[in-house]
Design brief:
Elements (H helix, E strand, L loop, with lengths): L1 H19 L21 E5 L2 E5 L5 H8 L8 E10 L11 E6 L4 E5 L1 H11 L7 H12 L15 E9 L12 E6 L5 E4 L2
Antiparallel strand pairs: 1-2, 2-3, 3-6, 4-5, 4-7, 5-6, 7-8
Length: 194
């Protein structure tokens, strides 16, 4: 009889612990709460579409949005908007998005899963509930921009973030001169980020 009570108590405790750990690792604000791109956003026209890029977020702004300091993790969030104007659909799957710094080094585009791993590693998160990691990945992924489906008149505007990793995985330095480069599209685009 005592073994049953102990087993029941252990099961109850583990259930409570699992339930309390099923929230996200970091409290990410809902993507719907993101305001429109500010008027000081930079833009460039390419053949058939326009790219607008918001000013880079400060450490405080990334902390407020993602409850994690992404630049300190070596992850640069770049917020952009793609607007289809006319012509043939733009195949974004073939497009190559990179950030180039003042030393002419290319910064790697990260998937949401890679960005989450980088953020967790930089914050020293090694023990976690797998469901919490999946929730954080889902919450961060809601901010991502769709670059897998073609941009055309059916879906003429897209907004979201692309996440880039510094070449040496060190924190992002605000003094660096950075440029967003989009290649493998009809007309390459270069937009200064700062």
């Amino acid at each position: 009889m005592d073994l049953r009570r102990i087993a029941l108590a252990a099961l109850l405790c583990s259930s409570v612990l699992l339930a309390s750990c099923s929230v996200s690792l970091f409290k990410v604000k809902p993507a719907t709460a993101l305001p429109p791109l500010p008027p000081e956003s930079r833009s460039a026209d390419a053949s058939g579409f326009t790219v607008r890029v918001a000013p880079l977020l400060s450490d405080e702004q990334t902390q407020e949005l993602f409850e994690a300091n992404l630049p300190l993790s070596g992850v640069l969030p770049v917020r952009l908007e793609l607007n289809f104007q006319s012509g043939v659909a733009i195949d974004l799957k073939r497009a190559r998005f990179t950030v180039r710094d003042g030393q002419n080094r290319n910064w790697k585009l990260l998937t949401t899963k890679q960005a989450v791993s980088r953020i967790m590693k930089a914050n020293g998160v090694y023990l976690y509930n797998p469901y919490s990691k999946k929730q954080f990945q889902s919450d961060l992924g809601a901010y991502g921009i769709d670059i897998k489906t073609p941009l055309d008149s059916n879906q003429s505007q897209r907004r979201g973030f692309l996440f880039f990793q510094t070449p040496d995985k060190r924190p992002v330095e605000s003094s660096q001169k950075l440029t967003l480069v989009i290649e493998r599209i009809p007309q390459p685009v270069n937009i200064p980020l700062n």
